[in-house]
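Hi V.,

You were right to ask for the full record rather than a summary. Here it is.
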Amino acid sequence: MTTTSAPASRAVFVTTHWSVVLSAREKVSTQSAAALETLCRTYWYPLYAWVRQQGHSPHDAQDLTQEFFARLLQKDYLQAATREKGRFRTFLIVALKRFLANEWDRARAQKRGGGQALLSLDTATAESRYQIEPAATLSADLIYERRWALTLLEQTMTALREEFTSAGKQREFESLKTFLTAERGEIPYSEIAAKLGINESAARVSVHRLRKRFREVFRQQIAHTVARPEDVEEEVRYLLTALGPG
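Predicted structure:
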């Protein structure tokens, strides 16, 4: 049986960062190295916050996070990544726990001895963000999952904003973004129409298109972090659950 959508899906997924890393982890690859660095820069904050929750000071947490990613970028840990457990969020937290348990003392000594980070991270901003987060009663691992999901949402919103801005529709995006998660019966289409200078029917179409595009981009962002196209929908469901009430 053939479908018209499968080729398009495969074409999109061929650029998925984590799948590129996994397929090239046993050999030198400029493409996989760049993909891994992009992933690390995007998703490092949930790990930094997890380390802080373990009781480490901001200074030690910064050093630890930097050294962990330096090891990761040097592919010290990539041999442990398998396609069967091919979610980047799972791989990262497992690798970090192993690093904390086995190598933190040595890594700290190397850092104080003048080690140089391979990945520049804005840890000062991260600490400020960590300090204003509400106190949580969930376990550190569950909070990590929630922070991961929130990071994906932030990446989705950034991508959408850039997309609308490039199309000359930034004002439309800023006016409609608050309705992405609203119940359909709660969306004030007449107010939106008046604000944008369009009729109510056009306002409904605009909201519908933005919500649809949001779902598409959210799935694209998740696709960057899993090993196979068929893993995307399961990961969507899992992360939406993580964003739910604690």
